[in-house]
Amino acid sequence: MEQHRAVVVGAGIGGLTAAIALRGRGWDVTVLERADGLAPVGAGIGLAPNALRALDVIGLGDPIRELAAWQGDGGMRRPDGRWLARTDAGAAAARFGGPLVLLHRATLVDLLVSALPAGTVRTGTPAALADAGDPRRPARVTTPDGEIEADLLVAADGIRSAARTALFPAHPGPRYSGFTTWRTVIPAPERPFAPHETWGPARLWGSQPLKDGRVYAYAMAAAPAGAHAPDGEKAELLRLFGDWHHPVPAILDAAEETTVLRHDVHHLIDPLPAFHAGRTALLGDAAHAMQPTLGQGGNQAIEDAVVLAHHVGGGLPVPAALAAYTADRLPRTTALVRKAARTGRLALLSARPAVALRDAAVTAVSRFGPGLVLRGFDGIADWRPPVAAQPSRVS
């Protein structure tokens, strides 16, 4: 019996997960990556129970759960340090069936790559969609080494996806959200602190521990698109957050300018009509880029990957399987893109009366305990994949 061939364009978290999941369904897979290496862009990523259950399908859920660092209390604060809401790692795990795991993106990429045979990922290989394919002919991509045909083409080529533009040229594409983000990782601090996210007027800061003792910090603020600080992004963070509560000043003191990443936040607030055409599927940010306010961007790419493999491995012709993939994923991710945008507007309110009203509402809700605070992630973190957990065939 002839083995089906899949080509994945993009070796990010979603693309690598898709490659492993498809191999687990018996597909021959090649991953094409434009960059010369696999060093991930970014700092940390939070994997919620929904993504961990998806990773169970490819046999990587438990190794990643072992990297969980959040224990005890955490929550939301004001810039002066007052707690607005307290959450508990145990309560979150009990409600959603598992922990939240924060890890460095490089750690996750290394784990995913290690689950693929050598040679599966071809770096330094840009690929352009030449033909999306149809029920009678394969999809085709062009590379510097020539054309490649595939029974299935997975476009995991990010928020600026060229494949998405080719498939849906009338779609407006990503829009600027009005917010920019910063991210960094620092060595283990001297003074301990509780994990937290702090909301101020038009600004947001988060400090989260990693398993190895380092701290992942992130920030978000309203800013014009394309803006950059003339004296460096660390100096900009000091201006915006330098007088906030502990441990924010200490983290900024420890941060190296070269490790501070700044990226404007764009999102696909206008949903696509579908996540597929012919034999080509869109995945991750290429399909549904969202604001980071729910921490679900990478999680949803992982979900996409296992759901895609489930449908194309179920015996249906590829075009029909991709229609089922769209039917599964488009409603869920559209709702999350919109919820993330609403959360962003709430978190980054600028008018002081609105900020005071928001903080009072969060405090009032928190008095009923962590369960009510966590309810906002019902329907997100409790998602389960459409297949039973099983190790993938990655030999």
Task: Describe it.
With 395 residues, the chain is an alpha/beta fold. It is 34% helix and 24% strand. The protein is built from 13 helices and 18 strands. It has helices at 13-24, 49-57, 61-65, 89-96, 105-114, 162-167, 233-241, 248-254, 285-288, 297-312, 318-347, 352-366, 370-374, and strands at residues 5-9, 28-32, 44-47, 73-77, 83-88, 101-104, 121-122, 128-131, 139-143, 146-150, 152-155, 175-186, 196-200, 203-209, 215-222, 261-267, 276-277, 280-282. The strands form four sheets. It has a seven-stranded mixed beta sheet, sandwiched between helices. Strands 7-2-1-11-18-17 form a six-stranded mixed beta sheet. A three-stranded antiparallel beta sheet has the order 8-9-10. Helix 1 (13-24) links the parallel strand 1 and strand 2. Helix 10 packs antiparallel against helix 11. Mean pLDDT is 92; it is low at 388-395.
Q: Please describe the biggest sheet, giving its number of strands, its sense, and whether it closes into a barrel.
A: 7 strands, mixed
- Which strand-content bin applies to the residues? 15-25%
How many DSSP H or I helices?
A: 13
Radius of gyration: 21 Å
Low-pLDDT windows of residues: 388-395
Structural class: alpha/beta
Assembly state (oligomeric): single chain
Fraction in helix? 25-40%
- The geometry reads as globular
Between the first and last Cα atoms, what is the distance in angstroms? Answer: 19 Å
Largest sheet strand order:
5-4-13-14-15-12-16
| Beta strands, count | 18
What's the rounded overall pLDDT mean? 92
